[in-house]
Design a protein that fits this description.
The chain is mainly β. It has a single domain, classed as Rieske Iron-sulfur Protein (3-layer Sandwich), CATH 2.102.10. The chain is about 0% helix and about 45% strand. It contains no helices and eleven strands. A four-stranded antiparallel sheet has the order 2-3-4-9, with no helix packed on it. A four-stranded antiparallel sheet has the order 5-6-7-8, with no helix packed on it. Strands 1-11-10 form a three-stranded antiparallel sheet, with no helix packed on it. It is globular, with a radius of gyration of 14 Å. The two termini are about 25 Å apart. Bound molecules: FE2/S2 (inorganic) cluster (FES). FE2/S2 (inorganic) cluster binds near residues 52, 54 and 74. FE2/S2 (inorganic) cluster binds near residues 54, 55 and 74.
């Protein structure tokens, strides 16, 4: 049986590039109400679900450190490239969304309805 075709995400404007400085996190509500957190790691923009998969703490209050996003509540650490949980060794991963830069805008790709 062939694989199901990949569904192209819908890209929505999330913020201006100047609104997320290197080293910063920013919580954003996209058109339609979907919430994400943007992370600027040395100029590279990443987007993740807005709340920690552990106990739903807002990740915009976390920090970036050596390629990871750290939740401020219990210090779980997620890989910025994949959303995988780095520390502790067991727990849920963070959903990661694709991003695009168009002009001075950051776009985030969310799953199409
Ligand atoms: S709520 Fe994020 S680590 Fe516990």
């Amino acid at each position: 049986m062939p694989d199901a075709p990949e569904v192209e995400p819908t890209y929505l404007v999330a913020a201006k590039t100047k609104d997320v400085e290197p080293g910063q996190l920013k919580g954003v509500r996209l058109r339609g109400g979907h919430e994400v957190v943007l992370a600027n790691d040395q100029g590279r923009i990443h987007a993740f679900e807005a709340y920690c998969p552990h106990q739903a703490w807002p990740l915009k209050w976390g920090a970036l450190d050596r390629g990871t996003l750290i939740c401020a509540l219990h210090v779980w650490r997620f890989d910025l490239q994949t959303g995988a949980l780095v520390d502790p060794p067991l727990g849920d991963c963070l959903k990661r969304y694709p991003t695009r830069i168009e002009g001075d805008q950051i776009l985030v790709g969310i799953d199409s309805p």
